[in-house]
Design brief:
Elements (H helix, E strand, L loop, with lengths): L3 E5 L3 E4 L4 H14 L2 E4 L10 H14 L7 E7 L6 H9 L3 E6 L19 H10 L2 E4 L13 H16 L4 E4 L5 H9 L4 E5 L1 H5 L3 H4 L16 H11 L6 E3 L8 H4 L14 H11 L6 H13 L7 E5 L3 E2 L4 E3 L2 E3 L7 E2 L2 E2 L2
Bound molecules: N-carbamoyl-L-aspartate (NCD) and zinc ion (ZN).
The site of N-carbamoyl-L-aspartate has 11 residues, from loops.
């Protein structure tokens, strides 16, 4: 008999669905596996108003394959000039589920991000008051801080003071990559949680740099050394409700990745659940998979869990070397490898 696992339908608490032809190419992959997703606002131009959030939500709905059952949860991109009342209105009207803090210059399309957290103090106060989640790209951007240290320094310089000053604010420390982040979130109060990507559970920085430079293993925050990966695996599979699924699936055209200045981002949406489940199986923690994928996220956001269920079967699955993109190819995470599980639906 085939082994199989049935769990409540999961959600993805951090995804880049892009726009236009790229959105058309990738939306179905996320909607196939996930009921809802927190959709990142780092378009060009970024999603900074309620009107832009609503228009983007409608473009996502229009790009979904016929019959898809998927709800995009929209986010507002914070800038130095974000109006706290715009954020309040977006949340109260049900357009925005969360706000996204990109330190200016930290990653793809973050040029309009926040240059100093003091500039969004009024917004954060309103968010704390109304119970709206802040999603944080947790890296400092100072040129004098080594890229492998940027997350750990962000905790000390930004996150710890923020949480002390606004103890009501709900904060998701996104796509964590270090043992420092695991320790910080574990020790923080209940209003602080973290998402973890499949890539940071599978690869360390060697995957990027050994035997040639491998742009498809490059994302931000960059993968760190092995001890950090092991700490992330322990946290994700521990059963702690502070850690939940956020793929950070971030598609870029093949030629934009395989370039002298390649874009950051790993496209992991097509086999996301298979990828995560492999980790839980290897760690002997399959019993904690449903919590990580389907229960902890809704609980943190104060949303109902999904009623539908999905099944994964223990059947070897071949990941293609590339998938079709808009006039290009998209190279998925695990390209050319085989995974032990298959998402059935
Ligand atoms: C993301 C992108 O391409 O939009 N890239 C990435 O490496 N994760 C931006 C981000 O989440 O940092
Ligand atoms: Zn991201």
């Amino acid at each position: 008999m085939t082994d199989s696992l049935t769990i409540r339908r999961p959600d993805d608490w951090h995804v880049h669905l892009r726009d236009g032809a790229m959105l058309e190419a990738v939306a179905g992959h996320t909607a196939r596996q996930f009921a809802r997703a927190i959709v990142m606002p780092n378009l060009t131009p970024p999603v900074t108003t309620v009107a832009a959030g609503e228009a983007y939500r409608q473009r996502i709905m229009a790009a979904l394959p016929a019959g898809a059952d998927f709800t995009p949860l929209m986010t507002c991109y914070l800038t130095d000039n974000t109006d706290p009342e715009e954020v309040r209105r977006g949340f109260q009207q049900g357009v925005f589920t969360a706000c996204k803090l990109y330190p200016a210059g930290a990653t793809t399309n973050s040029d309009s991000g926040v240059t100093d957290i003091a500039n969004i103090r009024g917004v954060l106060e309103v968010m704390a008051e109304i119970g709206m989640v802040l999603c944080v790209h947790g890296e400092v951007t100072s040129a004098d801080i080594d890229i492998f240290d940027r997350e750990a320094v962000f905790i000390e310089r930004i996150l710890k003071p923020l949480i002390a000053e606004l103890p009501q604010l709900k904060v998701v420390f996104e796509h964590i990559t270090t043992s420092e982040a695991v320790d910080f979130v574990t020790g923080a109060p209940d209003n602080v949680a973290a998402t973890i990507t499949p890539q940071h559970l599978h690869i360390n920085r060697n995957a990027m740099l050994v035997g040639g430079i491998r742009p498809h293993a490059y994302c931000l925050p960059v993968a760190k050394r092995e001890a950090h990966r092991l700490a992330l695996r322990k946290a994700a599979t521990s059963g702690s409700s502070k850690f939940f699924l956020g793929t950070d699936s971030a598609p870029h055209a093949r030629e934009a990745k395989e370039s002298a200045c390649g874009c950051a981002g790993i496209f992991n949406a097509p086999f996301a659940l298979e990828s995560y489940l492999a980790v839980f199986e290897e760690e002997g923690a399959i019993e904690h998979f449903e919590g990580f994928a389907s229960l902890h996220g809704p609980r943190f956001y104060g949303l109902p869990v999904n009623e539908a269920q999905v099944t994964l079967e223990k059947v070897e699955t071949q990941v293609p070397a590339a998938l079709p993109g808009p006039d290009t190819q998209l190279v998925p995470f695990h390209a050319g490898e085989s995974l032990r599980w298959r998402f059935v639906g």
